[in-house]
Amino acid sequence: MDFPCHDCIVSVENLSVPLVRELLEYQHDMTYVLLNLQRFQEAMLKFAEQDVLTHYLSNLEQIYLNKLTSDKRKREWLGGRFAAKYVAAGMLARNQNAVPWLKLAVIADKNGRPFLAPDKKEGDLPDISISHSGELAAAMAVSKGLCGIDIQKVTGRVFKVRDRFCTPSEAHLLSFYCERSAAQSSSLTMLWAAKEALRKVANQSPLPGFLELELTEILEMPAGKIPTSWKLIFAWKHRGINGNPFVEKCSVAVCLIADYVLALTVRNATND
Prior knowledge:
It contains nine helices and eleven strands. The chain is an alpha+beta fold. The chain has two domains: about 5-145, CATH 3.90.470.20; about 155-260. Strands 7-11-10-9-8 form a five-stranded antiparallel sheet, sandwiched between helices. Strands 1-2-6-5 form a four-stranded antiparallel sheet. Strands 3-4 form a two-stranded antiparallel ribbon. Strand 9 and strand 10 (about 245-255) form a beta hairpin. The radius of gyration is 19 Å and the shape is globular.
């Protein structure tokens, strides 16, 4: 694949059948990638800026990038876009529908959710999701339905905002988990990242509030199959198209990668 920053890739996974079936119960094509943003920035400096922009970004993306003034924000924005195009282009190529990078533009909808917009009709395009935290950028793509990804660095800051996303019942549930497996900061970050991923996959306006998504169960994967991975199950109380209230069951795959938490989820996919 025509990707200029292979040394920046921390991890790329075409998610395996066990992970798909045991965590997300998703049967279609799905992939994600993690990029090291520091190495990405260093790689970008090796290229003439105009050549990079012309070859890898659409006109709309170049216009948006030129509006950014912060170097940090530019690095995060570019890293996320490159990661999203990497997973999307790879998925299209595997499905015999190769599309040049220049014809894949990552555009945000009115809610800020990214999606792929080709220069011309290129057939069905994957759904994508983007996240970044600390020195990592993450992107996910699925061939059916919607996806949500979130990456969060584990820090003490999570305690300062705990009341905004963690209910007393969720804190009680997490307390049992903490006794067995991880520090409280890690478990709270898992909850935060999982809810962020669910908000991204909700695809509605306004987005569901953090406290509208209630953690009901934590399932740890058997040792030796998917190390340091869990399935978090949520109840999302909202109203359907007809206005009637109902509870939607949502699952999020969560794993620890060094001092980061990665959360992945899908929606409206298993009915296909």
